[in-house]
Amino acid sequence: MVLPIVAYGNPVLRKVGKEITPDYPELHKLIEDMWETMYNSKGVGLAAPQINKDIRLFVMDSLQIIANLEDDEKWDYPGDEGYKGVFINAKINSINGDEWSYNEGCLSIPKIREDILRREEIVISFLDDNFVQHTKTFNGVTARVILHEYDHIDGKLFIDYLKPLKKNLLKRKLDNISKGKISVDYRMSFVK
């Protein structure tokens, strides 16, 4: 089932998510719905706060980004083969490498994209959808997508990385999003 995506301004986007256990109610159905919602919205990642759940869960699929790169662009992400997976109770162990800029967007903040600096490599521990523990190293655009979604479960948004002047210039657009004065081709939920 396609779920509505929570728009900027909803307090759930600023909450630090709670860890969950395997007995979380209808977890596998929730994850299935998150995948369907993410793909329906043409996203590459979706965190539980974006569907109004303040838990430490996100899904992401950077395989679709890597698959759509032109041959000359693949050199920009050496060693990044992409990844599709579920991240439960994730914890970043380290963030390494040089910072690099990439034009990020967010399903909860539609029609706003900004260049954001992030480091090129992460080491992260997480549980998959079967609650099997993993510790993996990711780099390139895959690391970036994971960091973006990880921020969501920590109550952060990509616009928090902008300089105050730039954020101030976006204030009217952000206010319009929070008031529902925006049109998108996926279901959204606005603060009343």
UniProtKB/TrEMBL annotation:
InterPro entries: Peptide_deformylase (IPR023635), Peptide_deformylase_sf (IPR036821)
Cofactor note text: Binds 1 Fe(2+) ion.
Pfam families to which the protein is assigned, alphabetical: Pep_deformylase
Enzyme class name: hydrolase
Keyword match Metal-binding: yes
Cofactor: Fe(2+)
NCBIfam families per the UniProt record, alphabetical: pept_deformyl, PRK00150.1-3
HAMAP family hit by this protein: Pep_deformylase
Protein name as it appears in the record: Peptide deformylase
Gene: def
